[in-house]
Amino acid sequence: PTRSAAPAAVQADAAPASPSVNAYKSYYSEHAEPFLATCKKIGGDVGNIGDLAKRGFDFICIAVSAASQCKKPDDAKLREFIEPLSKVVQEADAGQDNRSKYYNHQAAFAEAAQAFLWIVAHSTPQGHVQTQLEASMFYLNKILTQFPDDDHKNFVKQIKTSLSEMKSYIKAHHTTGLEWNAKGKDLKDFKQSGAPAAPQCPPPPPAGCPPPPPPPAQPVVHSDEPPQLSGMAAVFAEINQGSNITKSLNKVTADMKSKNRPAEDRSGLVTTTEKKGT
């Protein structure tokens, strides 16, 4: 299959991609693309899941590219920057339809899609992804019971693998959150280079082209204060006032997880509020 073309924002920058960007491109080709292909093959409402998933995976590609080149921006610029990801997660949540024969696929993806928010998870992005993996398992197991054929088995396997490998990627490159370049340019300059609203992730560079050294790590400030949302997390919370999406950034207790809620208590729209209430 033909690889996706590089987004204009990446093409416009002559500097070689950082190790974190190259690693994400490899992750994308190895784990995102097979899942997208499976969604397309199943089609129907699952095909729509693939369209949403692609937007999420592509935005993460742009986010890690921007972070490798740019200083952490102020809240106003962050608000504009992360809006596409906010829409993906909201649409995944709102798109659940209990009349669809693929409702369990929709519900599983609605849980899994919140893993994209690791870029705004404060200090524990790996834990956030793990929480969403666990939350999706109830529905993934129901898919295996309802659809025992290979395509649906692949759907389940690929969601689980993509989230597990996402944790591995985060551990290697963004242990305490999205790593911005303290000596980089302004985010507006990255965006002005032509990043489209729904970018595509470029393929990894050819072998034999060594990447530049990673940007210097920013110092970690330890405090006795309890952790609070800041930066991108705070901006994301502001964008989604009145919704339940950012509540997933906090620790999810056992009674809040989808797998522990009685099936008869679930409606077509599954939200964190419903989880807490059961």
Automatic annotation (TrEMBL):
Coiled-coil segments: none
Region of interest called Disordered, as start-end residue ranges on this chain: 189-231, 250-278
SUPFAM superfamilies: N-terminal domain of adenylylcyclase associated protein, CAP
Pfam family membership, one: CAP_N
GO cellular component: cytoplasm
Similarity field: Belongs to the CAP family.
Protein name: CAP N-terminal domain-containing protein
Organism of origin: Beta vulgaris subsp. vulgaris (Beet)
